[in-house]
């Protein structure tokens, strides 16, 4: 019976891999059937790379800000009592409401897109971290401090490892929010990116190219989730509190 869990885990991984392969082949078959030659592949993939870079930059900034804010919130009970209601109100504020203001300040540039992405991405990470911090086992924290884990050592070797599952979970949600936001932001600003590419295809009534672009975007995001986020999610389970 001691090998049952390992066998079930292996079977689950094989099933997931099989489904992933079938899904990939299915999407590629549809793309080829619709006519991949009709798609300006270079323009699409260049747009996707630009969009991916914007999302990545916004994610890094959002993660750093979320960690700093979470540490600040729990630095004292008084700060926590004041800041949590304020943050709760701010997260409900629609990020696109700031769009006109950002355009006035920075023009129709990638900076506006990144700012909108940061506002959209920071909240899932931040509130996942806040929830996780509230659920930390105090005996582990007290034991770590007894053995000299204070200041930066406490943050690096105790707090961040304990919060790692929350960071990954919040990041996955944040990543999904970002791709919803960037498509709209790029269409409005009309800068090079996958959103603009799809918008041009739609405006030119090139339905088949639009469908191919959407399917390719879906396939690429599926691959990123499969080979980056899911492995990180599996690794994060090693840091979960018992």
Instruction: Give a short account of the largest sheet.
Output: none
CATH architecture annotation of the largest domain: Orthogonal Bundle
Shape: globular
Helix content: over 70%
- Under CATH, the topology of the largest domain is which? MetI-like fold
The total domain count is: 2
In short:
With 242 residues, this protein is mainly α. 82% of the residues lie in helices and 0% in strands. It has two domains: 1-34; 41-239, MetI-like fold (Orthogonal Bundle).
Please describe what this structure looks like:
The structure is a single chain. This protein is an all-alpha fold and 242 residues long. The chain has two domains: 1-34; 41-239, MetI-like (MetI-like fold, Orthogonal Bundle). Helix content is 82%, strand content 0%. The protein has helices spanning 4-34, 41-73, 77-91, 99-106, 110-134, 138-146, 152-189, 194-203, 207-236. α8 packs antiparallel against α9 (207-236). It is globular and about 65 Å long. The two termini are 22 Å apart.
Characteristic key phrases:
single chain; 242 residues; mainly alpha; MetI-like fold; 2 domains; 9 helices; disordered N terminus
Present the secondary structure layout:
Blueprint: H1 4-34, H2 41-73, H3 77-91, H4 99-106, H5 110-134, H6 138-146, H7 152-189, H8 194-203, H9 207-236
Helix pairs in contact: 1-9, 2-5, 2-7, 2-8, 4-5, 5-7, 7-8, 7-9, 8-9
